[in-house]
Amino acid sequence: MQLQPGDSVLVIPLNKSGIIVQSLARNTFEVRIGNLSMRCKCQDLRKIEKKKSKREEIPKGAFTSPAKQAHSLHSAPTSIDFHGKRVHEALEALDSALDAALRAGHDSFRVVHGIGTGKVQEAVHKRLREISAVKHFKVDEGNAGVTVVYF
Description:
Structural class: alpha+beta
Largest sheet: 5 strands, antiparallel
Radius of gyration: 17 Å
Order of helices and strands: EEEEEHEHEHEE
Shape: globular
Low-confidence stretches: 53-58, 60-65, 67-73
Strand order of the largest sheet: 4-3-2-1-5
Mean pLDDT: 82
CATH topology of the largest domain: Ribosomal Protein S8, Chain: A, domain 1
Number of strands: 9
Strand content: 25-35%
């Protein structure tokens, strides 16, 4: 199976569709599912063949009803994973992920930053202190590579 950036794929373990952003290493790809990016092995992906139609020119969600928009907000993710991300990439993704979680009415959100050098965690904590909607946050007691944010 030949996968390449731009291909639509099904991430089998999650049963979610996404788009391949880039090839990382042999048989490993960065896949974007909504606002989230993740690393996936080739065996966890199945290429989705797109049917060509005139409707493809209209972006999905461009003309959704308020009821459908409300439903999609409640299906916002409750966590984001920054493994392999640089500080600036993580901060850009953090803002949009927190915004989606707030709009969906979530009362908490998990940020998986890993342990590593601590630069991403430090930057995430600094940004969280600047956001007025964040009531408080703490490092997960069971995993020092995760910060739990409370709204």
